[in-house]
Amino acid sequence: MDNTRETLIEIEGLYQIFGPDAKNVLPKVKAGASKEEILAETGHTIGLQDINLSVKRGEIFVIMGLSGSGKSTLIRHFNRLIDPTAGKIKVEGDDIMELPVKELTTFRRHKMAMVFQHFGLMPHRCVLDNVGYGLLIKGEKRAEWKPKAVNWLETVGLGGYEDQYPSQLSGGQQQRVGLARALCTDAEILLMDEAFSALDPLIRSEMQEQLIDLQENLQKTIIFITHDLDEALRLGDRIAVLKDGKLVQVGTPVDIVLKPEDDYVRAFAKDVNRARALTVQTIMTADTSKLEGISAKDVRDIFPADRGHAFVFNNNAYQGVLTKQQLDDMQDDDLLEKVLIKVPTVRRTNLLQDVIPLSLNTRFDLPVVNKQGELKGRVEASKLADVLSP
Amino acid sequence: MIDSSWLTEFPDMSRRELLAIRQSLDSAYRTFSRDYGESIENFFDPLLYFLVWFENLLIETPWWLVLAAIVGLVYAATRSWKLCSGVLAAFLAIGYFGMWEDTMRTLSIITVCTILSICIGIPIGILMARSDRAKSIITPMLDIMQTMPAFVYLIPVVMLLGIGRIPGVIAVVIYAIPPVIRLTNLGIRLVNQETLEAATAYGATPTQRLFGVQIPLAMPTIMAGINQTIMMALAMVVVASMIGVKGLGQPVLKSITNQYFTLGLLNGLAIVALAIIFDRVSQSYAKRAQKHLEGTENG
What we know:
The complex is a heterodimer of chains A (390) and B (299). With 390 residues, chain A is an alpha/beta fold. Chain A has 18 helices and 17 strands. Chain A folds into 2 domains: 58-87 and 96-277, P-loop containing nucleotide triphosphate hydrolases (Rossmann fold); 285-388, CBS-domain (Roll). Helices cover 37% and strands 24% of the residues of chain A. The longest helix of chain A is centred in the middle third of the chain and has 18 residues, at 201-218. Chain B has a domain at 58-63 and 98-290: Orthogonal Bundle (MetI-like fold), CATH 1.10.3720. Chain B has 299 residues and is mainly α. Chain A binds chain B through residues 76, 79, 81, 105-110, 112-114, 116-126, 133-134, 137-138, 164-171, 174, 181, 185, 191, and chain B through 192, 194-195, 197-205, 208, 212-213, 216-217, 219, 290-293, 295-299. Chain A: One of its GO terms (molecular function) is ATP binding. Chain A: Belongs to the ABC transporter superfamily.
């Protein structure tokens, strides 16, 4: 992954203790008393304990944990639906714990949008008014936000449903409305609280795909909560594993699967069918260097020195693979298309199981392209093999 | 031996002491009502004018015009011709049996009492829903209002304001307001937490949450409360007639003292007819206003 992105959200020393006298219990928790001791002694429940994490701009950050691990509590701290007992929540360097009520409202209106497990739609408003809700409460006129809302509804595949009420839609459709509502506000940060957990498996995987597709163009910062490791691996650029209110491990999907830091994460990772859980995204080498041209002389000077083969494009359309050997054997005016080897392309979102046969059929790397056919990176067979053999 | 009569008889206070308490409280209240009665009465004057005006309007307007207006209102609220024809038949029967004027008086006082109850009750219900402390204070008060025999609180009201329409309205409102308060509170508290969270997350202010989410979603429950309030107001018609509120209650009262069985029955039936009309119309209006609930559940 790209590690050069700047940090957008930072959480430092976050504690959440539930009970009437949380502030006074805090020192005991900080001193290291266990959850059970605190409960027995004071009747307080520890929700979150010493959470430190940072989310980078433009990444999908997944927080994974089983029920009761505190993940839904944690995500509600990002927009202060819940106030922590102690700790700092910094967005672009400003501690949002310091914000007075009015500025907090402004912050929520402009910076963050949220998608809920059970959709959280307004049953008394039609679909269009639900999608435009974020803009409506900012005081924007209906005429101003309507085209935007209609547009987002079409993007999520619900064009024509504007005048329906949420209760007339299926669960999957309702969550699409929830997603459109979040996107309609143009907020940079998207909080998704078990957004797909209430949907059946087929719809869920459809929605995951849609989210990945959208993210490719939008580049939002997404904080995604889930209890499903397969989902976490599929969506996440980085994953934080939460257990009993503590962060156990934070890392890339590959780290979580291949280098679990303790038994808890190991137990999770063990059952994962890696070929089905990991996508090309997790193993691809980001590399957009390509050869652009039609004859040997066009590409001779730009052929990467350290590589045995390279991808050839013409007018931004993928043509095939050219090896160093082939190039060396060619005359300047020879046309490339005569020698190019037709290696199929893959998408960032393809599952490894779909890529394995393609990779086995060729001795070259597979090119990774986006929807528009632009080169984004490559899949090396050795990395694929590394990931698949535990 | 020490006096042990407390074992067999309750050690109550002496009659003289009790009398002293009663007298001092009574005279204190009498002084209060003598000093402030008039200004309190003046305070209620606008309400009295409105009551009289509304009553006269209903009585002095030709009956067919009033009837047309009522049926028109019913149609506007329910869009049901069936209900309209039922209402028409009921009012024609009432008029035919000579109870038109009394019915109009009762209609006017019930309408005013209901509007008053809603205007006072819904804000109190909202307050109760927002603060647990307010709830713990108001709930016992509502319990008292609902269980205290109406005659008991009629006494101070009559002492203060005399006999007439205003004390009647106050008595009816005291008796009828608890349901709308309770159900407003309940309705707001039952609003789906995630929906409310969603509103907060998108930056809704408390006012926007209240009017944009909580009240609309609590509306079915609030409407049930309003419906109950109307029913209870109608139930008070006879009691109110004892302190000089004219209307369908007075003939009933007369029937009790003189054993006029048929007169009592007819007027009683007229009250029942009013109750059914109010009930069906308000319920059907509430249902029509909540059209989003009609969607087929297929989640």
